[in-house]
């Protein structure tokens, strides 16, 4: 009996192993390559572990590129986008799905449709709009565009969490004299922490990895974010693989740490948000 | 129901206040970030797409040096990306936010002019021609209707690179003709070593290598006098056939190759030959662990029948976009300053070996000649300069100026034709018929 149960688990275990190797294999390769010298990276017979363990790639990254500036800029843009998206999507979700203002169903549909428009198609009109607002080449402009693309999805994502909170709580809060804003902030929101964490992680990763808008709406070197800085390491005609690997490892690190800290909220949150 | 007690109340208020404060600080910080639009009147904004760290550093150092001479207009550099520049300059043009100087290559220049941007710089080019002399291949692709539309700054030319150690071991001489190239490729292929590494991805790298072979096969000009496509001919078929045969001896993943992969295969010894520009020189010793003498170079092999020496040649230049006369004059002064022998060598050293001088006295410029890469590989550098004399580029052959070339180069039709053979199994004749139609359709739209 026990043997047959174990046999039944074999396909699942094999699938998990294959999936893990597929997902983590490239990450492993990038990480070990970051610690190899230029010659070892290009060996025709690759080495599984660095034979020439070196930190030169990381030293060069900090000394010969503006990595620290890109990192600072990415943190500013990602945190600002996350905070603004949280505020906007929480308020929007509460008003659309909880307060049931007239026409909220249609508005909710329109909001979701706007999420489905490919961003690349909007580059020229967005450039003109931001230019008219004097927001080209500013963090504010980039954050504004990022929020425009994250807030609709996050608003929809929060719907599931809102529906899970009984409306009786709102009614009880109203009897205690709380208005809609206070009810949302002090009654409903504390019960939606997994949803807030999900939205926060999703938005942070979106803006941390966002490339298209950052490459179009930022022109000054001092305002460039990490994806743009990293792409510059893969230059036309030439490439320093060690530098690219070191940059990639350090760029991945914050999102990996974030996932380790709140990853279980994120996975659970996505499922909850999508199914309720 | 949870009670709204004082402690929770205070905590909620503190959290809300903290979030709002953080949002305010970040928003203020974001809004206070500098903007490219808030520039002084006497400043020239320059966009270049040479975004690798070493090039960025050298160009910025030169701009700083120029600004220290107290010019009428100072120069502010903003680094862009080749992959994004087509969309970005279009969007900037629509908003009137284009830079004053824009680095360019010939087909990109036709695109930018199509956006209504670009001023003639004929007077600047004439002055540089008079003082320093210009390589003909560098100015020709920017000349239209008697006017120059960009000031050439540096050139790039392709060569046949070979691993001298591998050729020596196999008893192979550097090939001079197509048949010798094919025979050498076959002989050098053994075990884990491919005879040659060629790109076959849908990208500009594949376009360029195939076009070099088309040039030496006499198929460089594929436009009629009235700018229609005339690529479907026996010479093109022969060049395509050679490329297809060579690909059989290139690494199996060549279908995804662009610029870096053939170089990595070549440097590591996984391939004995490659066709590319001078970027192979600088990193060779560090990445291969071999002495510099193991890096050999030769002109692109020519067709056995009716072949001619040649190679693809990219003249990289700078367009002046500003219409304001004072700014235009300031831009012209800066570009002439760059080409002055006192600093031109330093400019070329931004990517030694890849960036070749376009002025006739630039080839002897001491700062450039003394660069370790240039002096170590002097023979190959001189060979590239000689190859540049026969260099040309599609759409600009023999004084042509095909305004619709951007619609062809932008879609990588040559590379797509390679994929038709390499991936879809078409014969060279079928691929040439296919590309004739695709190109004609593209320029007819």
Summarize the structure.
The complex is a heterodimer of chains A (276) and B (445). Chain A is mainly α and 276 residues long.
The profile of the biggest β sheet of chain A is: none
Beta-strand percent range of chain B: 5-15%
H-E order of chain A: HHHHHHHHHHHHH
Oligomer: heterodimer
* Mean pLDDT across every amino acid position of chain B: 89
Overall form of chain B = globular
Strand content of chain A: under 5%
CATH superfamily of the largest domain in chain B: Periplasmic binding protein-like II
Structure commentary:
The complex is a heterodimer of chains A (276) and B (445). Chain A is mostly helical. Chain A has helices at residues 2-33, 38-41, 56-64, 67-97, 104-115, 123-132, 139-164, 167-175, 180-188, 193-209, 212-217, 226-233, 241-275. Chain A has a single domain (55-275), classed as MetI-like fold. In chain A, helix 3 (56-64) packs across helix 13, helix 7 (139-164) packs antiparallel against helix 10 (193-209) and helix 12 runs antiparallel to helix 13. The radius of gyration of chain A is 23 Å and the shape is globular. The two termini of chain A are 38 Å apart. The model of chain A has no long low-confidence stretch (mean pLDDT 86). Chain B has 2 domains: 43-155 and 314-388, D-Maltodextrin-Binding Protein, domain 2 (3-Layer(aba) Sandwich); 157-312 and 392-444, Periplasmic binding protein-like II (D-Maltodextrin-Binding Protein, domain 2, 3-Layer(aba) Sandwich), CATH 3.40.190.10. Helices cover 48% and strands 12% of the residues of chain B. Chain B contains 20 helices and 11 strands. Chain B has helices spanning 6-31, 53-67, 82-95, 106-114, 122-132, 136-139, 164-170, 178-188, 204-216, 234-247, 260-268, 284-288, 325-339, 341-348, 366-369, 372-376, 378-388, 405-409, 413-422, 428-444, and strands spanning 43-48, 74-79, 101-104, 143-144, 147-148, 151-157, 159-163, 273-276, 295-298, 311-320, 391-392. In chain B, the strands form 3 sheets. In chain B, strands 1, 2, 3, 6, 10 and 11 form a 6-stranded mixed beta sheet that branches. In chain B, helix 19 (413-422) runs antiparallel to helix 20. The longest helix of chain B has 26 residues, at 6-31. The N and C termini of chain B lie far apart (68 Å). Chains A and B meet through helix 4, helix 6, helix 7, helix 8 and helix 9 of A and helix 1, helix 2, strand 2, helix 3 and helix 11 of B.
């Amino acid at each position: 009996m026990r043997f047959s149960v174990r046999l039944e688990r074999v396909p699942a275990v094999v699938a998990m192993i294959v999936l893990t190797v597929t997902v983590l294999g490239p990450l492993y390769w990038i990480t070990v390559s970051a610690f190899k010298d230029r010659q070892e990276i290009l060996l025709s017979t690759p080495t599984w572990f660095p034979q020439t363990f070196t930190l030169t790639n990381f030293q060069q990254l900090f000394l010969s590129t503006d990595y620290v500036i890109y990192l600072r800029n990415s943190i500013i843009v990602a945190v600002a986008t996350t905070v603004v998206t949280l505020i906007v999507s929480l308020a929007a979700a509460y008003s659309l799905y909880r307060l049931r203002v007239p026409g909220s169903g249609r508005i909710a549909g329109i909001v979701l449709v706007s999420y489905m428009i490919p961003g690349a198609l909007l580059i020229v009109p967005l450039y003109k709009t931001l230019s008219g607002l004097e927001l080209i080449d500013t963090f504010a402009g980039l954050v504004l565009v990022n929020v425009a693309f994250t807030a609709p999805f996050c608003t929809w994502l929060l719907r599931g969490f809102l529906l899970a909170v009984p409306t009786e709580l709102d009614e009880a809060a109203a009897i205690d004299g709380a208005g809609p804003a206070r009810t949302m902030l002090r009654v409903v929101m504390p019960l939606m922490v997994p949803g807030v964490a999900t939205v926060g992680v999703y938005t942070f990763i979106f803006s941390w990895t966002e490339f298209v808008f950052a490459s179009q709406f930022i022109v000054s070197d001092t305002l460039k974010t990490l994806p743009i800085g990293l792409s510059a390491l893969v230059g036309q005609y030439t490439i320093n693989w060690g530098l690219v690997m070191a940059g990639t490892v350090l760029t991945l690190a914050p999102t990996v740490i974030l996932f380790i800290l709140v990853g279980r909220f994120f996975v659970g949150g996505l499922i909850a948000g999508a199914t309720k | 129901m949870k009670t709204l007690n004082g402690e929770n109340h205070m905590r909620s208020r503190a959290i809300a206040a903290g979030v709002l404060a953080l949002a305010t600080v970040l928003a203020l910080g974001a809004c206070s970030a500098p903007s490219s639009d808030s520039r002084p009147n006497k400043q020239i904004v320059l966009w270049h797409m040479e975004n690798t760290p070493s090039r960025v550093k050298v160009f910025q150092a030169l701009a700083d040096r120029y600004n220290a001479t107290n010019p009428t207009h100072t120069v502010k550099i903003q680094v862009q990306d080749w992959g994004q520049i087509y969309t970005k300059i279009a969007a900037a043009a629509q908003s009137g936010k284009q830079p004053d100087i824009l680095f360019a290559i010939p087909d990109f220049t036709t695109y930018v002019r199509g956006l209504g941007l670009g001023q003639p710089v004929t007077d600047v080019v004439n002055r540089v021609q008079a003082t320093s002399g210009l390589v003909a291949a560098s100015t020709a692709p920017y000349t239209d209707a008697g006017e120059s539309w960009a000031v050439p700054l540096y050139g790039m030319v392709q060569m046949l690179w070979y691993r001298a150690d591998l050729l020596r071991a196999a008893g192979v001489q550097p090939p001079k003709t197509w048949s010798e190239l094919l025979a050498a490729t076959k002989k050098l292929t053994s075990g884990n070593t491919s005879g040659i590494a060629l790109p076959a991805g849908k990208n500009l790298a594949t376009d360029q290598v195939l076009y070099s072979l088309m040039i030496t096969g006499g198929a460089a000009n594929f436009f009629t006098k009235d700018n229609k496509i005339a690529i479907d001919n026996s010479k093109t078929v022969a060049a395509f056939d050679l490329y297809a045969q060579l690909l059989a001896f290139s690494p199996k993943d060549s279908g995804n190759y662009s610029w870096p992969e053939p170089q990595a295969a070549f440097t590591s010894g996984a391939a004995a030959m490659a066709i590319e520009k001078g970027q192979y020189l600088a990193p060779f010793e560090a990445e291969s662990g071999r002495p510099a003498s193991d890096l050999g170079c030769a002109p692109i092999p020519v067709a056995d029948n009716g072949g001619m020496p040649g190679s693809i040649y990219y003249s990289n230049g700078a367009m002046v976009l500003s219409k304001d006369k004072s700014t235009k004059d300031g831009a012209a002064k800066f570009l002439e300053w760059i080409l002055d022998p006192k600093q031109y060598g330093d400019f070329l050293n931004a990517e030694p070996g890849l960036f070749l001088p376009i002025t006739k006295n630039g080839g002897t410029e001491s700062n450039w000649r003394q660069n370790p890469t240039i002096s170590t590989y002097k023979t190959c550098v001189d060979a590239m300069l000689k190859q540049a004399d026969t260099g040309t580029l599609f759409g600009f052959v023999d004084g042509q100026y095909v305004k619709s070339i951007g619609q062809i180069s932008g879609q990588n039709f040559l590379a797509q034709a390679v994929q038709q053979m390499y991936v879809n199994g078409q014969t060279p004749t079928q691929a040439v018929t296919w590309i004739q139609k695709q190109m004609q359709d593209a320029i007819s739209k």
